[in-house]
Structures are given as structure tokens and as C-alpha cells.
Amino acid sequence: MIIKHSFRTALCAAIIATLNGCGGGSDDTTSPGPSPDTGWVAGVFADSEQFKGQCAALDQKYWLRSWSNETYLWYDEIEDRDPASITDVIDYFNVLKTNDVTASGAPKDNFHFSLPTDEWEQQQQSGSVLGYGFNFRVVKATPPREVVVTYSEPNTDASTQGIERGWQIAAVNGVDVVNSDNVDAINAALFPTQTGVETQFTFTLRGSNQQQRITLDSAQFIQDPVMKVGTLSTGTGNVGYMQFNDHNAPAERQLVDAVNQLASANISDLVVDMRYNGGGFLAMAAQLGYMIAGSNNTNGVIFEQTIFNDKNPDTNPVTGDPLTPFPFIDEYIGFDPDSGISAGTALPSLNLNRVFVLTTGNTCSASEALINGLRGIPDSRNFEVVLIGDGTCGKPYGFYPTDNCDTTFFTIQFTGVNDKGFGEYADGFAPQNITNTERAPVLVQGCAVADDFNHLLGDRNEALLSAALGYRATGNCPAASTLAGLKGYAVSNAAANSGAAAIGDNRTHSKLQNNRIMTPVIKD
Predict the structure, then answer these.
(1) Interval 381-391: pLDDT, tens
(2) Of 297, 228, 278, nearest to 257 (Cα)?
(3) Could you say which residues form the signal peptide (predicted)?
């Protein structure tokens, strides 16, 4: 069973929004009588299959209403609205969610969204996205803004023209990104909605005041989910490093190749850089967990036990299958049928007893499931997870993307717990010495360190990687950094394909499981 997972974001929810109202229960039979226009009765739901595939707007809305009531994790927190009361199908879907908040006051569900089905399939299966070929982080969204390149994708115009991590976007098409109040022009340039959009970027180069103008055309390009793999020699053995950006279909073969490469280097420790990994396939996280920890640590251990709403205590409401624990997976699944490896092939493993994970507020979904799954290994097996960086986004929830009438809908349908029965990290995981987060994260051993744009990823002098190596050697953390505190967020320059035009705020945003932001994020 392949489950798409987005843990408390995601490529996973778009803008953190405040909605009006709070839902009445779905079993409320004392509410208003039938609508004279549609026959709607609050709290009375027909089987969703009655409306499935019927593409008149009203039928689509009735399908969404019943489907949400059947499968949404918090179905009894949805305000039941007359489908005729909201004209647009997507607008109606957007209110079919809880308005409750977590214990820290954060919205409970930031992960409710939809996409054209062809766009979703293209992104997840091929890794293809629309953009300029580089990712960036909005360090500060209000003037004076700070928008910094995090990395360029290999074999794109951006990398060919030398755009590097640490470059700041000073202007787009002559509009001052730092100070201008013309946010529409900035967002339109940063998030093109079609190929062939020519945009002139003015970058301030890393570590200097020198500027460079580069013109890029928007295009579809294939993301490289496992980018940098290498070995760092130390006085106490080799340490492996892997930059892992996305749990998408092409990543499965790349992860196997990376683990084989690291195993041949005889590493004694591993650093997995997931600071910009927003998630994807849960099964792939279970595979990576096995490849890191090996059979001795994972044999007989649950990676995740999925839990659906209280209407479905024993059965998966999407597949109809009995609920069974999700194991660490020790074989190749074959997400990409053209990968050259047959499904069922045994996976390699590093058989480590510890892993260092580099994190930021964009570490979401299946990435957090990997952390939680490995933390669930019984204490008697002495496996350690060490976090270095900032707090993760906090998404212990998942969904099955569901198509209806050429639109794929994403609504939270399950949560999960690890082998120890733990799964409540709605405010994320964070290193134990973090102090300035607005949330109440689960604290994990490690060091709070701010993202470092002055060095390339994989450079042993880059702050997070350096802290991991230092903690490995001494058990001590560097001096406290100024952190984003779960406010900063990174952006894939995969444009606003969804067509949304809302202005974002300065929190962690993502719209799909692979954390490819689909909504503009600059505001005045």
C-alpha cells in the first residue's frame, strides 16, 4: 500500500488562513430543514459514491461534503453548509475543514488543498515542476525583505548560469524586492504560472554587495530529490552526508544508489540533510528508515500505525482494507517503473545506531514521519536520532490524494503513531536547546542552529553540518544562533501552478507533500 503523507504542512497546505465559524457535529439532526433549492438537510449525508464522477458543480459539492464526512479525520468539527450556499466548487471544499487550533494556538489543519489532477500526477510521478530551477527562502517577508537562494537544481538554466546558495534576490523585472510595495509584480515574477515567462532577476552575491542580473525563462524541469552524497573524513571514522529534498517517485532509486555509495565508504555515522524536504510517500520514509537502521534495529518494529476517524477504528475507509501496522520496509517498491530495479529487490542498509538529521521549518510530513518512526525503535536497541537546526513544521497527519472531475483533493484523513505509541507532534520536533519558537515542539537531543547561507550545502563549515560534526565529536552544541523560530520558510521556485493569488505571511507554508510552495508568499 502506497500512502501519500504530509505531516503537519506540507507540499501539504497552502496559506495559513483564519476561517470563520466552527463546525457543528455531523450527526446534528436538530438543525434547519431541507433547503428549498437543493434538498440539503444539515447533518444528513448520502453515500459519497452517489455523487462520485458527476461533474455538475452541485454534484461535485455534494460529493465533497459526503466524502469529507466519511473520511476527514476531524469530520465532526466541520460546519455543515448547504452546498448551494457557496458557488465555486473549490471555495466550498476550502471550508470543509476544522477551524480548531492546537494547544499552542496554531491552526490544527494547515494542509487542506486541491490541484488539477494532471499537475499533481506530473509532480509526484516524474518530479517535474514549473519554475526557474532554483529554490529560495523568504527569511523576512515584509520590508525590508530578505529572499535568499537556498540551492539551484542541477542541469537547469539557474545552475548553468551559476546561481548559488546565499545569493539574495534584490529585484525582479526592475521591481525592488526588498522595499517595493508592488507585491503583485513581485509574486507574479517569483511564481510564474506557465512556461516561457521571461524574468530578469537582480541578485546580490553571497558575502558581497556586488550584484548580477540574470534573465531566466520559466520551464518544466525535473527535480533532483537526492542531490549531494559524500563522505567527510574525521579522526573517528567517515561520516556520510546526503542532501535529501523530496520523497517523490524518482527518489527511491536515488536513495538506494546513495546508500550503496555510503556503505562502500564504510561510514560510521550519517547526516541526512532534510532541511527543505516537505515529505511525500510515507512508504519511502519507511524504506529510508530501514536503510539507515538496518534489520537488527527495525525487525518486528512498527514504523507507523495509522489511525483514521472514529467511524473507522478497524478499517481503512479509503481502501477498505483492515488496519494493520505499517512496517519498516526492506524491499524496493518501484514507485518509478523505469528505475531499473525490480519491485521486491532487497534494499541495502547501513546498519547504523544513530542518525543526524538537519531540519528547518520546512522539514515536514514524511520527513517528520522518518524522525518519529526511528524514534520509535525500542530503547533496548539503543538507536539515536539527533536533530540539528530549527524546529520542524509539525504535521503528524496524512491523506490519500483523491481525484474527482479532473481535480485532486487533499484532506487530512489519518494520523499515526510509532512503535512506542507516540505521534502527537502537531507543533513539530525541535532540538532540545531551542528557545524562541512560538510553538510547543517535541524536544529531541541535538542543537538549535540557524540556517547558514554563507556556505554551500555539504560544506563541512556550513553551520548545521559543522554543528552535527561537533556534536558527534564532543556532545556539545555551538553558541546559540538566531533562529527563524518556525517563522522562516523555504520555497521551491515551482510556480503558483494552482492559480492561487493570496499573499502569504511569514510562516512555514507548503502546498504539497514535497513542499513545493504553490502560493505567493511576499506581502507588504
Answers:
(1) 999 999 999 99
(2) 228
(3) none
Mean pLDDT of all residues belonging to the chain = 84
User: d(Cα 407, Cα 52) in Å, to the nearest integer?
Assistant: 12
Distance CA 261, CA 122 (A): 29
Write the burial class of residue 511 (CB in 10 Å: 0-12 exposed, 13-18 middle, 19+ buried).
buried
H-only helix segments in 265-360: 282-298
Non-local CB neighbours of 358 within 8 Å, separated by 6+ positions:
271, 272, 273, 274, 275, 388, 389, 464, 465, 468
Distance of alpha carbon 146 from alpha carbon 169, whole angstroms = 8
- Strand intervals (E) in 173-260: 175-176, 198-204, 211-217, 219-222, 226-234, 237-244
Helix (H, G, I), strand (E, B), or coil: what is residue 175?
Answer: strand
What average pLDDT does range 361-366 have in this prediction?
92
Asked if 197 and 216 count as a contact pair (C-beta separation under 8 A), the reply is no
Q: Which helix or strand (DSSP H or E) is residue 124 part of?
A: helix 117-126
Please state, as a whole number, how many other Cβ atoms lie within 10 Å of the Cβ of residue 131: 28
Where does 127-250 have alpha helices with state H? 157-160, 183-190
Confidence of residue 483 (pLDDT cuts 50, 70, 90): low
Cell (9 digits) for 310: 472514529
Cite the DSSP H helix spans in 397-480: 463-474
Count of Cβ atoms closer than 10 Å to residue 219 Cβ: 17
Please check the confidence at residue 30 and state whether its pLDDT lies above 70.
no
At residue 94, φ and ψ (nearest 5 deg) are -65, -20
391 within 8 A of 437, measured Cβ to Cβ: yes
**Domains in the chain, please, with CATH?**
228-474 (3.90.226.10)
What grid cell was written down for 259?
Answer: 546508500
Q: Rounded CA gap, 304 and 284, in Å?
A: 12
Measured CA angle at 514 (ends 168, 459), to 5 deg: 50
